[in-house]
């Protein structure tokens, strides 16, 4: 009976890895948003909401209040950039500035799509691990009152399930490593985008195409 208990312990370990992998995905994918929120709350950094023409979705770094104000300022489905910096709010409708803003954030959006796709794969693997874990738990419950011969057979089944869990666990670890790489790339892109966006806003203010909105 010692071997089945060892297998059950291994099952719980793999389930824990699955949960950690799913949490890792959430943390990695939420990291850029967390950095964005920190930027929005800093007095010397800009919060922004960018609407593309004809789109209801937005690219943003800021609070839900920023999004609400940007939506209120938008006319129909026009392209628009709302910016809040240093206690002042601005709205930009200049087409050249909007195109430049879109180009600044495009690399982050593309990388975010990769992270989301990878996260979907991690979630699917986690579900498979959970199903295997449930099967292992079911077999473990049967082992507790089984005859010696039946217990041996159940033990072999448990070992087979544990090997499958090992394979899925290694796949999860590989996907987690990919997410870490993408997360570091996203942080680098966020720093680059912030620098470029600062310059873009300064130029928009200089040219007078950033209009006060508060």
What does this structure look like?
- By secondary structure, the chain is of the alpha+beta class.
- Helices cover 74% and strands 11% of the residues.
- The protein contains four helices and five strands, in the order αββαββααβ.
- It has a five-stranded antiparallel sheet with strand order 2-1-3-4-5, sandwiched between helices.
- The radius of gyration is 25 Å and the shape is elongated.
- The chain starts with a helix and ends with a strand.
Produce a short descriptive summary.
The chain has 214 residues and is α+β, with helices and mostly antiparallel strands. It is built from four helices and five strands.
Backbone structural class: alpha+beta
Residue-averaged pLDDT, rounded?
84
Largest sheet: 5 strands, antiparallel
Distance between the termini: 72 Å
Return the string of H and E elements. HEEHEEHHE
In the predicted model, the low-confidence regions spanning at least 5 consecutive residues are 1-43
Strand arrangement, largest sheet?
Answer: 2-1-3-4-5
Q: Helix share of residues?
A: over 70%
Approximately how much beta-strand content do the residues carry? Answer: 5-15%
Tell how many strands the DSSP assignment holds. Answer: 5
Topology:
Layout: H1 2-41, E1 47-51, E2 58-61, H2 64-73, E3 80-85, E4 88-92, H3 95-143, H4 148-207, E5 210-212
Antiparallel strand pairs: 1-2, 1-3, 3-4, 4-5
Helix pairs in contact: 1-3, 1-4, 3-4
């Amino acid at each position: 009976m010692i071997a089945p208990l060892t297998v059950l312990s291994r099952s719980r370990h793999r389930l824990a890895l699955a949960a950690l992998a799913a949490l890792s995905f959430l943390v990695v994918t939420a990291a850029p948003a967390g950095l964005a929120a920190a930027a929005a709350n800093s007095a010397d950094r800009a919060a922004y909401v960018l609407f593309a023409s004809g789109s209801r979705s937005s690219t943003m770094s800021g609070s839900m209040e920023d999004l609400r104000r940007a939506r209120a300022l938008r006319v129909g489905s026009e392209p628009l950039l709302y910016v809040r910096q240093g206690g002042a709010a601005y709205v930009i409708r200049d087409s050249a500035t909007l195109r430049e803003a879109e180009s600044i954030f495009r690399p982050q959006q593309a990388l975010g799509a990769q992270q989301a796709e990878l996260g979907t794969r991690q979630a699917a693997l986690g579900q498979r691990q959970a199903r295997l874990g449930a099967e292992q738990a079911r077999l473990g419950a049967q082992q507790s009152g089984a005859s010696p011969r039946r217990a041996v057979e159940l033990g072999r089944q448990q070992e087979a399930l544990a090997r499958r869990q090992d394979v899925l666990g290694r796949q999860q670890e590989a996907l987690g490593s990919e997410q870490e790489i993408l997360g570091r790339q996203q942080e680098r892109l966020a720093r680059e985008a912030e620098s470029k966006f600062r310059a873009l806003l300064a130029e928009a203010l200089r040219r007078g195409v950033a209009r006060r909105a508060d």
